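Hello everyone,

My group is preparing for a crystallization screen and wants a predicted model to guide construct design. The compound we'll soak is zinc ion. Before spending weeks at the bench, it would help to have a computed complex in hand. I've included the protein sequence and the ligand's SMILES below. Output in structure-token form would be ideal because that's what our pipeline reads.
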Amino acid sequence: MKIINFPITMPFGDTENTVYPTLLWDDRNIILVDCGFIGSLPFLEKELHRLGLSVEQITGLVLTHHDHDHMGAAAAIKRQNPGIKIYASAAEAPYISAHEKPLRLQQAEEIQETLPPEQQEFGRAFCEMLRRVEPVEVEVFLNDGEILDWCGGCKIIATPGHTPGHLSLFMEKVSIVITGDAIVLEYGKPVIANPQFTLDIEQAEKSMEKLLSLEAKAYYCYHGGIYYK
Ligand SMILES: [Zn+2]
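Reply:
Good plan to model first. Here are the tokens for the complex, ready for your pipeline.
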């Protein structure tokens, strides 16, 4: 049984951006938690190969929420491995499947109206990118408090705020929390994800406190890597 937090680095023009999905790997399941940006499948594959795995071997994909950097490669993964099961909260599912307009896109379009002229182009490009996120159907809804048998027990923790249906995972036996965007690591400190993109800041702060109060030994942050408490 292995719980692996690994980087995917994706080039963006002159810069690059690294995110850290997690793998829950036991003898029955190989679960990927979040999967990177639009177009990141080849980068994900490279990392999986390094671990001795292929996309076809992954049995499940948990999406902590519907943001492009977490679900961007989900539809491509599902195409390559149609047997993979897609998991998310019921509250997040309509945005992941685009049965409803994703909240992030709604927010970006609203902000676009208020941007000063010099930021208009950036805002437009951001909206365009969000429209390119390929939806995927959520097949299994995850509920707060539910325990799955992945890696000896994986408890679902509702951590709303960043988005309404955001969820985190608590691997109680090994004392590891997989935070999604409920906690990000900035200069070695745990903080809530970018407040500008946090749909309910008060809720997000409560969710971060909830995770920290679990007193886990390690917090696997999608942005920033591992935080040891
Ligand atoms: Zn994120």
